Amino acid sequence: MAADSRYAKPARWHGWQMARICCSALWLFLLPFSAVADTTLEAEIADFLKQEARELGYQAEVSLSAQGLDAGSCPLPELFLPPSADMRRGRVVVGVRCLEQGETHYLRADVALPVDYLVVAEPIATGERVTLGQLRWERGDLTALPNGILQDPAELESMRARRSLRPGTQLRSAFLEKEPLVERRQAVTVSATGAAFRVEREGVALDAGGLGDWLRVQMGGGEVIEARVVGASHLEVLP
Questions:
Q1: DSSP state letters, 90-130
Q2: Are 186 and 231 in contact (CB under 8 A)?
Q3: Global pTM?
Q4: Which tens digit of pLDDT belongs to each residue from 58-111?
């Protein structure tokens, strides 16, 4: 009796699938060892760079190629960054020291550092105090952003705009300056505080400055000292 074609078709399909699996396994077996080893070394280098970035406070994204250098030619790699390496530039050179061979190779890697940073949300006039309410957050790659980009709202304390700022401007430290709490030739109070005492004297500021700045102050007897600005018209010296 002839076989029912309804059952013959699945059998042929099953045989074809098995042939595909066998061919795929054979291709993987014949794949050059260096291709697999390169991938392993690349992963090791990528993990190394990500760990270096974490120590700097970043979560890095890494892309690189270790073509021509594999586990067969460098079974015991020791990875390091040259002293001039700076991940914030976006491209770094990674040193691979092959301990058994006594050789050192250098590979280039591209690093992205995603960060949140501050952008102007509304117009800010020259000299106007800058607050977080005038800004918004955006996310981008630090390596592609300008130097001095602001990422910490604490850096806005007692700061004003050095120039007018339009909405959409990436806020940089160069665009800000400290609000002057002391003007030049202004009468000021200078205090010194210790464990069991507090002394205050009057003087005249010889410089202008903002919070945390060290200024020269001429005291009543003509003596000139240096004191740190701690408030409006108020400075402090170390005891």
A1: SEEEEEEEETTTTEEEEEEEEEE-EEEEEEE-S-B-TTPBP
A2: no
A3: 0.66
A4: 999 999 876 666 656 778 889 999 998 998 899 999 999 988 888 898 989 999
The residue behind tokens 């010889």 is 206
Locate 100 and state its tokens: 């058994």
Number of neighbouring beta carbons within 10 Å of residue 181 = 22
For residue 153 the two structure tokens come to 């709202």
* Lookup: tokens for 22: 């066998």
CA distance 174 to 129: 15
Q: Over the stretch 164-219, which tens digit does the pLDDT of each residue have?
A: 999 999 999 999 998 889 999 999 999 998 888 889 999 999 999 988 899 999 99
| CA–CA–CA angle 180, 182, 188 (5° rounding) | 165
What Cα–Cα distance (Å) separates residue 27 from each residue in 31, 181, 226? 6, 74, 77
The rounded Cα 56 to chain-centroid distance in angstroms is 7
Burial 71-100 (b: 16+ CB within 10 A, else e): bebbeebebeeeeebebeeeebebebebee
Residues β-bridged to residue 165: 124
Residues 50, 99 contacting (CB under 8 angstroms) = no
Residue 167 · residue 120 · CB < 8 Å:
yes
